[in-house]
Amino acid sequence: MADLSKRLKNLGFVPASSLKIPDKELQRKIEDELGGYRVKSNQGEIVIVEKTFPYGSTYGDLTIQNEYKCKEIYKFFKSSNKTTSVRGHVFIDTETTGLSGGTGTIPFLIGYGFYDENGFVTRQIFLDDPSDELAQLIEFSKELENFEITVTFNGKSFDLPLLKTRFLLAQLPTPFETFSHIDLLHISRKLWRNRLPDRSLKELETNIMGYTRSQDDIPGWLIPQVYFDYLRTGDSLQLRNVIYHNQLDIVSMAVLFQKIDEMLVVSRINNSIDPLDLFSIGQMYFQIGEYDEAAYLFERCLSFSGLPNKFLREIHMSIAWIFKKRKEFEKSIPHWIASTELESIEACVEMAKYFEHQERNSKEAMYWSNKAYNLLEAVNKPKYEKTREFRNIQKRTTRLSRRKVNV
Questions:
Q1: pLDDT tens, position by position, 382-404
Q2: Domains, in order of start, for the chain
């Protein structure tokens, strides 16, 4: 154990007990100022802040729903859980003493949310004395006993590894070790990548949920300093903003989860979905191998007018690829041709392959190879890419020229 302590110290590990706590003369009843209550145990003291968002209450343009079923979203995550009830989900977000993680970073605020009979509940465990971290971890561990799926936003890279480290260092079992995990950041990036340049949680609140935070919010990068200022001076004024920030992060995750699952379910029938989002959903199903669903959604995209050419090309090429995989070449051809009219080099190459290998028509194959060559000459691409593609086309035309041309 002594060797372990020495190694952790060399790695920069900071025990929570080593952080300075506020001068008792400056310390106020922080639980009252934050609107919470204090919990005392043999392991120490913590402050808990709770708030319930009733079912039917609005959150921007959306409504917090009661006991809705969800299943479609699980397809895009490696999940062994079979539950379709949101009651089994716990939404987790932490505020920490540093933004880079590592063994020296402490989650002074562990926030989590869940659904109960009254609505969506946020519960936040605040560490007003860092030496009481054990009490915080034990309380959090007890709270997770009734859940089986964790939901986060970038928690795969930050929140969950950080919490695992704190449980490990406290020599406690990690309570969510066997849980399935859904990281909404990754699915949000896929779902809105064609429409939104920024898919941060705050931007999704504005552009997808129609929600705007009040002036009580605080930038995430400032939060560690606010906590250190509190430990140094006992001033809790800005801590209220930290609580607000964390609370809204949790609620936004729940509403975003609800919105994404709803979009996936109604994408087959709802014409109000933005065509770029519909295209993204099709891409998502394509990536997990659900080609029937992907083809249907891509075909629906083609019913919308005004899509940029680069998306139309990809839609046609994706549909053509699905039919080609099934060896239904006659269904691929119209989409390859549509893509060639949009100046797709790849589509010209596919047409050349089709006529060479399926129709044994060297003349037509040569025509499409030459068309691909001409398009490649005009396109603006890095030199190394053009050189590679020119060589591939030249190999094909050389091979075709040696064959007897079919008339």
A1: 988 889 999 999 999 998 888 75
A2: 2-266 (3.30.420.10), 275-401 (1.25.40.10)
* Band of pLDDT at residue 66, cut at 50, 70 and 90: confident
The residue assigned the tokens 């959090």 is 140
CB atoms within 10 A of CB 150: 23
The CA-to-CA distance between both ends of the chain, in Å, stands at: 84
Instruction: Write out the H or E segment, with its range, that includes residue 389.
Output: helix 383-401
Q: Where are the alpha helices (DSSP H) in 106-199?
A: 133-143, 159-169, 184-191
Distance CA 62, CA 255 (A): 8
Query: Contact, 104 vs 13, CB < 8 A?
Result: yes
- The Cα 127–Cα 46 span in angstroms is 6
Helices 383-401, 362-378: axis angle to 10 degrees equals 160
Number of helices (H), then strands (E), belonging to the chain: the values are: 15, 9
Query: Is 17 or 40 the better-scoring residue by pLDDT?
Result: 40
Residue whose C-alpha is closest to residue 275's, from 301, 256, 252: 301
Q: Where are the alpha helices (DSSP H) in 192-328?
A: 201-204, 223-233, 239-266, 275-287, 291-301, 309-325
Q: Which helix (H) or strand (E) holds 377?
A: helix 362-378
Sign of CA dihedral 216, 222, 223, 226: negative
pLDDT attached to residue 272:
83
- What are the residues whose beta carbons fall under 8 Å from the beta carbon of 59, sequence distance 6 or more? 53, 209, 211, 251, 252, 255
Q: For residue range 19-37, list pLDDT tens digits in order.
A: 655 554 445 589 999 999 9
Give the amino acid at 13: F
Q: What is the 3-state secondary structure of 251-272?
A: HHHHHHHHHHHHHHHHCCCCCC
